[in-house]
From TrEMBL:
Pfam families: MFS_1. It is a multi-pass membrane protein. GO terms for biological process: xenobiotic detoxification by transmembrane export across the plasma membrane. The chain crosses the membrane at residues 12-37, 57-77, 84-102, 108-128, 140-158, 164-188, 223-242, 254-276, 288-310, 316-334, 355-375, 381-400. Keywords: Cell inner membrane, Cell membrane, Membrane, Transmembrane, Transmembrane helix, Transport. It comes from Afifella marina DSM 2698. This is Bcr/CflA family efflux transporter. Belongs to the major facilitator superfamily. Bcr/CmlA family. The keyword Transferase does not apply.
Length: 411
């Protein structure tokens, strides 16, 4: 077990179980998004959706609820502790998933998906907060890499699981499955997770204190800069989630093999998260993350240019390796950028996690929805959007770092 800060002594469960539980909290988000991807066609057909790009709103609605609700759960977690907020959020998640499966029309489905996202927001806020409560610096980055490795393993099998469900049942049962998974995490957390926020570190829940905590986050150059850069990078990821089913099925004609291709790129992201947990102590968060972001940007631009060069669709054998390599480098970006944004904000970890999470997920969801909705039957809008977003992320990091990349600091 890595050496820990004194706060880690409050853990009453083994380190491995703590990592697994934190990863499961985060995995609820990926599960709710990725498992539904193979069913987007079925959902559109079930509700007679005329605008085929509107099927992406099933993903967007979840992300919107997920992003906005973090603004409330952060201050609540700082006031009442991590456990009660987590358990309340898990109840909402289970209810939202169940209601989504029973939705009678598309509008109610989107509303219920947003509700499920609201519940998922608590799991994201609490997962990061308990990690920040117990570890700091490179130890926190290493632990978060392990959490993210398990979290990113979900997209490897979730679409395939969704496709298997479709072979034997309707798309409604996919949403029932997310509710069942949430209930399992609810039971596990309720019986095993200790409270990691000490009484003396709890912040009063009043307007002045909440505004003060928000001001601390938004006026910290490093925290705000890395949060916004993460939002831009996650915009690329969400655009991939939104449009991947259409790209792989309609452009490249993969049909039921879509989950296999999607899982292939997810394997690389998970592998990068694992590699990061081993390399961050040696090279530091900045060197790894800055190198990865530049590589992500270069590969995105190459893909965008090639998509314009070909008179028809660029070959799958060329598109898939390029985009998979780009998202491999993304695996080094998200984890380290989150840790760099949280590093100076330990004294307001709950609110910091909520504000940063709102910026990253709601902002990323907005950028991703915008790029995804531009889908025109080719990969050009997606690839171009990915290139622009990653380029803007580099500019934002330069601002956060006063124009100097790869600077060796304590992190």
């Amino acid at each position: 077990m890595p050496s820990a800060t004194p706060a880690a002594s409050r853990l009453t469960i083994p380190y491995v179980e703590f990592v697994a539980l934190a990863a499961s909290m985060m995995a609820l988000n990926a599960m709710a998004i990725d498992i539904i991807l193979p069913a987007l066609d079925n959902i559109a057909g079930s509700f007679s959706i005329e605008d085929q790009n509107a099927r992406q709103f099933v993903v967007t609605a979840f992300v919107v609820g997920f992003g906005i609700a973090q603004l409330a759960f952060g201050p609540l977690a700082d006031r009442f502790g991590r456990r009660p907020v987590l358990l309340a959020g898990l109840v909402i998640y289970v209810a939202g998933g169940t209601a989504s499966a029973l939705a009678p029309d598309f509008g109610i489905l989107l509303a219920c998906r947003a509700l499920q996202g609201v519940g998922a927001a608590a799991t994201r806020v609490v997962a990061i907060s308990v990690v920040r409560d117990t570890f700091g610096g490179r130890q926190m980055a290493s632990l978060m890499s392990l959490v993210m490795m398990v979290f990113m393993a979900v997209p490897i099998f979730a679409p395939t699981l969704g496709q298997l469900v479709l072979f034997v049942a309707s798309w409604h049962w996919i949403l029932f499955f997310t509710a069942i998974f949430g209930a399992i995490v609810l039971l596990w957390s309720g019986t095993r997770l200790p409270e990691t926020l000490a009484e003396e570190n709890r912040r009063p829940l009043n307007g002045r204190k909440v505004i003060e905590a928000f001001r601390i986050v938004l006026t910290n150059r490093q925290a705000f800069g890395y949060a916004f850069a993460t939002a831009l990078a996650f915009g690329g990821l969400f655009s991939y989630l939104n449009s991947s089913q259409q790209i792989f099925v309609e452009v490249f004609g993969l049909g039921p093999w879509f989950p296999v291709a999607f899982s292939g790129s997810a394997v690389l992201i998970a592998g990068a998260s694992f590699a990061n947990s081993r390399l961050v102590g040696r090279f530091g968060m900045r060197r790894l993350a800055h190198t990865a972001l530049i590589s992500f940007c270069v590969l995105s631009f190459v893909t965008a240019i090639l998509s314009l060069v070909y008179s028809g669709p660029m070959p799958f054998w060329l598109f898939f390796p390029l985009i998979s390599a780009a998202f491999f480098f993304f695996g080094f970006v998200g984890t380290n950028f989150n840790a760099l944004a949280m590093e100076p904000l330990g004294h307001v970890a709950g609110t910091a996690s909520s504000v940063l999470g709102f910026m990253q997920t709601f902002g990323g969801g907005f950028f991703g929805a915008f790029v995804g909705y531009l889908y025109d039957g080719s990969v050009t809008p997606f690839a171009s959007g990915l290139a622009i977003l990653s380029g803007l992320a580099i500019c934002t990091v330069l601002i956060a770092e006063h124009g100097v990349l790869f600077r060796q600091r304590y992190s």
